[in-house]
Each structure stands twice: as structure tokens, then as C-alpha cells.
UniProtKB/TrEMBL annotation:
Matching PANTHER family: DUAL SPECIFICITY PHOSPHATASE 26, PIGGYBAC TRANSPOSABLE ELEMENT-DERIVED PROTEIN 4
Ranges annotated as spanning the membrane: 485-503
Phylogenetic placement of the source organism: Eukaryota, Metazoa, Spiralia, Gnathifera, Rotifera
Name of the featured protein: PiggyBac transposable element-derived protein domain-containing protein
Keyword tags: Membrane, Transmembrane, Transmembrane helix
Region (Disordered): 1-117
PiggyBac transposable element-derived protein domain sequence ranges: 141-494
Species of origin: Rotaria magnacalcarata
Comp. bias intervals (Acidic residues): 20-31, 51-66
InterPro entries: PGBD
Residue ranges with Polar residues bias: 1-14, 100-109
Length: 519
């Protein structure tokens, strides 16, 4: 019985049968098949491979069922068998909750999709000194940019006018005892301002003038600058407007006694310095016991009676940029009936720097969702704390004793983000941001959200300015509120001039550690 080897292990059985029949036909014809198209020739390569192959041998017994096969497996290391990849379990998405506030605003715990940086977060201006301050060399030159010649000339004119008016009344009432007023000028006014600043540097604002001009305890610079009586006369007659027309102007403007100087001062503040990317809006209280119809009474403050000024400052340098004096409540007109006075106040303070990609930091007195939306329309973002009784805050963000410490709850409403952070048990801090749009938390700093960390870095602009003013204030004791206001202008101008000068000269403190020596 003939046996034939398979060319390949996987060849079918009938291929061998065809091969046997082909060999029988070829033997009968004498092996000449070149002219017969029906006869097929097997290539030599196939034959040799067939003979040398180690494939299994099939025995033909005439019955296909008796055919035995030996199956060989490919054990080559080059092509390992494909394994079915394990299916990874799908990530579990956190549960999305929707919170409703009393105002009807809907908040969701789902983060908004990631987008490219918004135009409101791109700062389009560089910080630094303004064009008028590019050529300054000393702090005095920087200070004279803020307390301008126009302000000193106004002070000279109105001081001389008030002195002549008072002395004329005295001479009319006391014939034979006439007094004469020696008119002041700009140089003397600058010397007057310099004595005030020097007394503040020595922290002698509350010291009696007799002590400052004393031969034993006083400084010689005070006696060398001007006499004590002349300084007292300037303090007495110092005015900033025409007293004879003041009553008429007071009917329309409660700040009439100091309005002209205040307007000129604010204009110089805005052109001498360009702020950075963060601004701070807050209030400053100027203690005074003077008679004033818009004076505030705040019993929790050290100075219970004070004038209130709202400031917009640079967060990094505490430079004062813009201010507005609180003058009490005004009766609302028909046009102003639908407006919010606090929201409008913040927009007025930051108006010169809108559409520049800056961020405004406010406390809970100013922050609201409506203000954040209005500023976003001006390419300006807002970060600030909120009071718990605001209608925009959902009930789930309030403080509960069951909430663990250092935990945070985030919720989003389009471009606004609200976060409630628990620094200690039973107390929650709520912040609103139109700058942040994620749930980023810093685990190294008590798991505080990035919104809280950013607010802590930028909230202290006005407070730092007020702290420096209190340390080296030139304010003297007086019962006339315009003089209290003027002393504060000198203090704020000194801080602003120092910031401009150190920005222009960043190497100022390489060999010196005492800051007040430069004042």
C-alpha cells in the first residue's frame, strides 16, 4: 500500500488521493507530459520540501475514517498566541447634584468642560510706573507728582484769603490792636507739609507742639524750619476752598470743603502707576471727632467716629489707585431706583482698569453674583467672600456641625463658581469666583481650595496701605474734618510716592534694611 507524505500539516485528505492518481497516469505515459495541458507538474521545490518535511504520515486504508493524524502545534517564540485583553472597569462618575437658592438660581456640582483661557483672565497691561514718573530720581520728586503744584497753589490762595478775613474782623472789633498777616507762599507750604511728615516719621503725631519745638526734648530741625507760632497760624488758617461760597456748594456736594484737592489728587494717583493683575476693593476709616454730617459711628472700631473712604488698591504693592468718600444715603431718583448702589460703587472704582483682564478681590460687603456677571461683561473677574444670608447661596453650602473639618463643597453656574470651605467645625467660609472653574484643592495647606488661597493672597491691599498709614501718620489733633481729610491725603500720598520710587529703583534696599529712613 502506497503512502504519501503531506506537504503541509493542514492539507486536506483528498489532495493525497489526487496526487496518487497523478503518479499512476504519469507512469503509463512514460513520464512525457510537456505537451499535455491537462497534466499538471509539481514544482521540485514542493517535492523536496515534501520529502524533507517532518510532517505526520497518513496511511491510506481505503476508508477515510481509518486515517490517523498527528497534530503539531507551532511553538515559535516570535509570534506568541494572542491573548484577550482584560476589560478595565469603567470609571465611576461622581453623583451630580443640583442645588437651588432662594433667588431661583440653579447650581450644579458637575465641573464645566475644560476650555481655553477666557479673555477675562488674560492681563493685557504690564504693571509699573506711569509716564510722568519715568524720570524721577528721589522720593521727594515722586511725592511732588502726587501733591502737585496746583494743590499747593490752591492751599496758598485759600489760606491767605481766610487769614485776611479773620484778621480783618479782629481789627474791626479791636481798634488800636491791629494785627498784620504775612502772606504765605508755596515754599512755606512745602515746609509746613515737611514738618507734618517728619513728625509722623518720628511717631510724634500726638506729641504737643511745645515738646517738638523744645530746646531740650525737641528736634532742631523743627526750630530751624519755622517758628512754632507760625506753624500754629498755618494750622489755624489752612483752607482748601472759598469759605464765602461754601454754603451754596454744600447743598449739592457734602465734600465741597475739600472737593478740588481730592479730585486733583485722584487724577495724579491714576497716571503715576500701572497696577498688576489683581485689584482690591475695601474701605478705610479715618477717625475724627470733628463736626461732620456724613461721619460714621462704628462702636466695634477703635475710633468709633470716622470718615469712610472706599479704595481700589493694587493687591501686590498696596498702591492706592482710586477712591470714593462715603457721604451717607442719598434719596433714590426714578433713574436710580433699579440700580444697586454697592454694585455701582465697585464698578466706578475699577472703571479705569476694565477690559484689561484683571481680577478684583472684595469682601462680603461688596460680593454678589450680579456684580460678578457685570464685571465679566467688562472682561474683569471677581473673587470674594459672601455673607451667608445672600439669596444666591443654596442651603447645602451653609455650615453644619456634621460637616468634617477641611472639607469643601463646590457648585457651578456657567461662569460662576461657589465654594464652601470648613476651616473648623461648625464654621464655613463661602467664596464666589468668576476666575476659577474647577475643584482644585491644595492638600499641603489644610486642603484649602485654590479660590481660598488666591483670595488670601489678594485681599489685603487696602488693609496693608492703612496699616502703613497708621504706623507713620502725620495726623494732628483737630476738630475740623477737612484738616483730618488733608492729613490723610498726605499719608496716602507718601505711601504712593514710596511705591512709585521703589518700583522705579528695585535695588533701593540692597544695602539698607530700614525703610522709614527713606522718608
Amino acid at each position: 500500500m502506497n503512502s504519501t507524505k503531506r506537504l503541509y500539516p493542514n492539507q486536506p485528505t483528498h489532495w493525497n488521493e489526487c496526487a496518487e492518481q497523478f503518479e499512476e497516469d504519469s507512469d503509463d505515459e512514460g513520464g512525457d507530459m510537456t505537451n499535455d495541458p491537462e497534466n499538471l507538474e509539481i514544482p521540485d521545490s514542493h517535492q523536496s520540501s515534501s520529502e524533507e518535511s517532518d510532517a505526520p504520515i497518513e496511511t491510506d486504508s481505503g476508508d477515510e475514517s481509518d486515517t490517523t493524524y498527528v497534530t503539531t502545534e507551532d511553538t515559535s517564540d516570535e509570534e506568541p498566541p494572542k491573548r484577550r485583553r482584560k476589560r478595565e472597569p469603567p470609571l465611576e462618575r461622581p453623583e451630580v447634584k443640583i442645588f437651588s437658592s432662594k433667588s431661583g438660581r440653579q447650581w450644579t456640582t458637575e465641573e464645566p468642560p475644560k476650555r481655553k483661557v477666557a479673555q477675562a483672565n488674560i492681563t493685557k497691561q504690564r504693571s509699573g510706573v506711569g509716564r510722568p514718573a519715568t524720570n524721577i530720581q528721589t522720593v521727594k520728586e515722586a511725592f511732588q507728582l502726587l501733591i502737585t503744584q496746583g494743590m499747593t497753589l490752591l492751599l496758598v490762595r485759600e489760606t491767605n484769603r481766610q487769614a485776611h478775613r479773620v484778621i480783618k474782623q479782629w481789627n474791626d472789633q479791636n481798634p488800636g490792636k491791629e494785627h498784620q498777616w504775612n502772606e504765605t507762599d508755596s515754599d512755606e507750604i512745602w515746609a509746613f507739609i515737611g514738618i507734618l511728615i517728619l513728625a509722623g516719621v518720628h511717631r510724634s503725631k500726638n506729641e504737643d507742639l511745645d515738646e517738638l519745638w523744645s530746646m531740650i526734648n525737641g528736634g532742631p530741625i523743627f526750630r530751624a524750619t519755622m517758628s512754632k507760632n507760625r506753624f500754629k497760624s498755618l494750622l489755624r488758617f489752612c483752607r482748601f476752598d472759598n469759605v464765602s461760597t461754601r454754603d451754596q456748594r454744600l447743598k449739592e456736594d457734602k465734600l465741597a470743603p475739600i472737593r478740588d484737592s481730592w479730585v486733583m489728587f485722584l487724577a495724579q494717583l491714576q497716571i503715576c502707576y500701572m497696577p498688576g493683575g489683581s485689584l482690591t476693593v475695601d474701605e478705610q476709616l479715618i477717625p475724627t471727632r470733628g463736626r461732620c454730617n456724613f461721619r460714621q459711628y462704628i462702636p466695634s472700631k477703635p475710633g468709633k467716629y470716622a470718615l469712610k473712604i472706599f479704595w481700589c488698591c493694587d493687591s501686590s504693592t498696596a498702591y492706592p489707585l482710586n477712591g470714593e468718600v462715603y457721604r451717607g444715603h442719598h434719596p433714590k431718583t426714578a433713574a436710580a431706583a433699579n440700580t444697586n448702589r454697592i454694585r455701582d460703587l465697585v464698578k466706578r472704582l475699577v472703571h479705569p482698569w476694565i477690559n484689561s483682564g484683571r481680577t478684583v478681590a472684595t469682601d462680603n460687603y461688596f460680593t454678589s453674583a450680579e456684580l460678578a456677571k457685570d464685571l465679566l461683561g467688562l472682561n474683569t473677574t471677581l473673587v470674594g467672600t459672601m455673607r451667608r444670608n445672600k439669596k444666591e447661596i443654596p442651603r447645602e453650602l451653609q455650615s453644619y456641625r456634621r460637616r468634617p473639618e477641611q472639607s469643601s463643597i463646590f457648585c457651578f453656574d456657567r461662569q460662576l463658581t461657589l465654594v464652601s470651605y470648613v476651616p473648623k467645625k461648625g464654621h464655613a467660609v463661602i467664596l464666589l469666583s468668576s476666575m476659577h472653574h474647577d475643584k482644585a484643592v491644595n492638600n499641603e495647606q489644610k486642603r484649602k481650595p485654590d479660590i481660598v488661597l488666591y483670595y488670601n493672597d489678594t485681599k489685603g491691599g487696602v488693609d496693608r496701605m492703612h496699616q502703613m498709614i497708621q504706623t507713620y501718620s502725620c495726623k494732628r489733633k483737630t476738630k475740623r474734618w477737612p484738616m483730618t481729610f488733608f492729613f490723610n491725603l498726605i499719608d496716602v500720598g507718601g505711601i504712593a510716592a514710596f511705591v512709585v520710587w521703589i518700583t522705579k529703583n528695585p535695588q533701593w534696599n540692597e544695602k539698607n534694611d530700614i525703610v522709614d529712613a527713606y522718608f
